[in-house]
Design goal:
about 45% helix; about 25% strand; five-stranded antiparallel beta sheet; alpha+beta; Arc Repressor Mutant, subunit A; four-stranded antiparallel beta sheet; 7 helices
Length: about 280
């Protein structure tokens, strides 16, 4: 649950950055496009030796389409138009894919057009040497993609990547700790001298040996080991291990005690002592 909550928090933060910045990004793109296209108009007028007439306000037709209009008429040389627009849009870091149309102000017909696809082989630039006569023109620029988000929001993209990586790292650490803790929970053991007693797995192990236990041996060790260095009365052992689970055969307890002594024989610090007439004690020095 904690890991899921962490991912939700990071996802929420990322969405907040994107949601809060979408409108700002579009506004920034529009203003930057208008400034760049005004510069295009200015350069076209200079090519006509006109440094006095006005470039009318850049119109935004829709989200990605803009229009340049002029106060006076002008000639347009396609080569100059293509080079001017290409250079200015590239310097302004505006989208690399766009369509340009030169429209006759009166007839609204397209006098010249070209398409730039970002890849030279796919761009279409026809009749580049034929000059358009002096006339009233509008220049329409349609951006085929709005790339301004990637240019203007690189800090947010970097932050997003950092948050994603951080989320993955935290998830890995959290998962590793869960697995580590689950192993501890799934494999508890009780320390008896040099041995580790795994009750659920019916065995005792050391660094060099693993000894399997019968069910009765395991039950007997469980009681004695939880009472290390304390006497456990004989009747308690008999009742817990035999009488509550079946028929007790006389001397069965002594037989199993003898078996356990053999299993612990390699550790001199362990001794199962018979307290005569009372019971047994697991001594661990």
């Amino acid at each position: 649950m904690k890991l899921k909550a962490i991912h939700i928090i990071f996802a929420t933060i990322i969405c907040m950055f994107y949601a809060c910045d979408t409108t700002h990004s579009q506004d920034y793109f529009s203003e930057k496009a208008k400034v760049a296209l005004r510069d295009v108009g200015h350069n076209l007028l200079l090519l006509n030796n006109d440094s006095h007439s006005l470039i009318l306000p850049i119109s935004q037709i829709d989200q990605n389409k803009f229009e340049i209009t002029f106060e006076n008429t002008l000639e347009i040389t396609p080569d100059s138009l293509v080079n001017t627009i290409s250079t200015i849009l590239k310097n302004a870091k505006l989208p690399k894919r766009y369509v340009v149309e030169v429209l006759d102000c009166k007839t609204k017909e397209v006098s010249y057009s070209f398409k730039i696809s970002g890849i030279q082989e796919e761009s279409i630039v026809p009749c580049s040497g034929r000059t358009l006569p002096n006339n009233c023109y509008k220049i329409s620029v349609l951006f085929l993609e709005n790339e301004s988000f990637f240019y203007t929001n690189s800090p947010y993209i970097l932050l997003t990547l950092v948050l994603i990586v951080l989320s993955l790292v935290i998830g890995f650490i959290y998962k590793h700790r869960i697995l580590k803790n689950s192993k501890k929970i799934e494999s508890p053991f009780l320390k008896i001298g040099a041995y580790k007693f795994f009750k659920e797995q019916n065995k005792i192990i050391t660094d060099t040996v693993e000894i399997n236990l019968s069910k009765k041996e395991c039950e007997l060790i469980a009681i004695l080991s939880t009472n290390q260095n304390r006497v456990v009365k004989r009747e308690i052992l008999v009742k817990e291990i035999w009488e509550d689970h079946g028929v007790f055969v006389d001397r069965s307890l002594d037989t199993f005690i003898s078996k356990l002594r053999k299993k612990f024989k390699d550790d001199p610090t362990i001794n199962i002592v018979n307290i005569h007439g009372v019971g047994y004690k697991l001594e661990v020095n």
